[in-house]
# Entry
Amino acid sequence: MEFTTAVGLAAAQRRAQGEVRQPGQGEAAIAEFLQRLDEVTGDPDAPVLMLFEDSDIRRSRFFLPDNVHLPSTLAFLRGLERKCLIPSAEQVWSLIAAAGRTPSLADVDLPGATLGNVTSW
# Structure
């Protein structure tokens, strides 16, 4: 399912006009997404996977609903490898770095809870 936040759309329009990326836009987009989660999923109890790269997200001050499972990029890749869905987390990690990105080394996997069950791999 694809969902575009108003914050993300406005930021993309500003970047297209040559503006430099503003700090805090990612957090604002996440806050909007979480606020509109029922609209996005159509089911308030549906488990939601929210992948994050910036380790600061754990210190952000927005409300994280119980049904949101929050893995870092590194934890997500390692989980995919563990389930044999990708051959190598390290290979994907190398491709990310080769593309000029500097992903966080945080290996965080915070499960959510929905309908009394804890999300898991």
In short: The beta strands are 48-49, 68-71, 109-110, 113-114, 117-118. Residues 6-16 form the longest helix (11 residues).
